[in-house]
Amino acid sequence: MTLKKSIKEFQSYLGENDSFVDLNHKHLADKILLHWGYDEFYPFIQKLLINDKDRNRDGFSIEVMTELYQLSEIHEQLFSKKSSRK
Fold this sequence. Notes:
By secondary structure, the chain is an all-alpha fold. 67% of the residues lie in helices and 0% in strands.
């Protein structure tokens, strides 16, 4: 299942466009869906959005970074109330 098909708010954000994460980083999309709706999503997505100096990697394209940020925002809107009730 893709992020676009699984998360209706992300589908609304993308409109007719395909997701760069779904198309180019299937393993990443699967991990996002695995963490979706859980508190573990936050540290996971932060590791993707922040490039540590200690980690040797090229990073993501601006399109992928934009989608990751949008997914983070959507998750916060949908699930932040759930986390604050604990």
